[in-house]
Design a protein that fits this description.
10 helices; 36% helix; globular
């Protein structure tokens, strides 16, 4: 189990790389073979996204509770902040702020890195854990896969039935996690940008998910990244031009998730989230499939309020 939890965290580093605000992401798009027309279209989307972000950050999010934001009631034993005194809580927030300031100074000397989810934004290694963006808000802004909330007892997780649908999928090279995830993302992004037999421009959906596969000894043996194909193309998905990209039909599946906000990258945090998910499921005698773990990114890293999830699939769905 400890090895499984450790393997689950490997996905975090590659999936949350940030880029400095002055990084010339347009050159990256040129290197990836996008046309000037495509780049201008992306630039327009970028400008619109920034305006929307400013409006979103100006909104008051206090009208939604933590449980509503996460989608489930938290287990009391996971509520460490209730055990801390008022003074301890204030000290913790000061510590988070100090850590973020220190890391921002250290990041000034870092080499530029390409984030596969965004073309710009602020580089920030957040050590805090703010309230996540609610799934309702996320799916209002972007199309999500069809799902039904499963009514199960328990705390510390949400259960969903992800309905059968077509996804575009590509393998992720786990021998070089940094390059592997970036290459996987760009292959899928090019597919929805027109690298398909219909030349179709397909809307970006959420979440971007990565499945991580383990053998019987919980050794990492492979990974895949996937985008949900939006409803407009579900009946007749375009065939990918890249032989490394494929379209798959996924059957209904029951999943269990824990959600969190912020821009966490540290492995310890992800270990903690998976560990709490396993503990919460064990309390309800729920057995997840142990040879695959999933992470899902529902929002654009570094831009506004975030929603990320760690997920496990019910053993009966495999």
């Amino acid at each position: 189990m400890l090895r499984l939890l450790a393997v689950c965290t490997l996905l975090t580093v590659a999936l949350s790389k940030a880029v400095d605000s002055d990084f010339d992401w347009q050159n990256i798009l040129k290197e990836q073979g996008f046309s000037e027309e495509d780049i201008e279209g992306f630039s327009q989307n970028e400008r619109e996204a920034k305006v929307k972000l400013e409006q979103e950050e100006a909104e008051d999010e206090d009208d939604i509770t933590w449980d509503e934001a996460k989608g489930y009631e938290e287990c009391e034993e996971f509520m460490w902040w209730k055990k801390a005194g008022k003074e301890d809580w204030a000290d913790k927030k000061k510590e988070w702020a100090a850590n973020n300031e220190m890391e921002d100074e250290e990041d000034k000397d870092d080499e530029y890195e390409v984030d596969q989810y965004k073309f710009g934004g602020n580089k920030k290694k957040d050590k805090s854990c703010p309230k996540p963006k609610s799934l309702a808000e996320v799916c209002e802004d972007n199309e999500c896969p069809p799902f039904e909330k499963v009514d199960v007892s328990g705390c510390g997780f949400e259960a969903r039935k992800i309905l059968a649908a077509n996804w575009t999928v590509t393998k992720l090279d786990v021998s070089d996690m940094k390059k592997g995830d970036q290459s996987a993302f760009w292959r899928l992004f090019k597919y929805i940008s027109g690298a398909n037999d219909q030349g179709a421009k397909i809307a970006m959906t959420v979440p971007v998910i990565t499945k991580w596969y383990m053998d019987d000894d919980y050794e990492l043996v492979g990974a895949e990244m996937a985008f949900y194909i939006p409803s407009a193309f579900q009946a007749n998905p375009p065939a990918p031009s890249d032989p490394l990209v494929r379209v798959e039909r996924w059957d209904d599946a029951i999943t269990y998730d824990r959600a969190f906000g912020g821009n966490r990258e540290d492995e310890e945090f992800y270990v903690k989230q998976f560990k709490m998910l396993y503990k919460a499921l064990a309390k309800e005698n729920i057995t997840p499939y142990s040879q695959m773990s999933i992470t899902a990114g529902f929002t654009r890293p570094g831009w506004g309020r975030q929603r990320k999830e760690v997920m496990l699939v019910d053993a009966g769905s495999m």
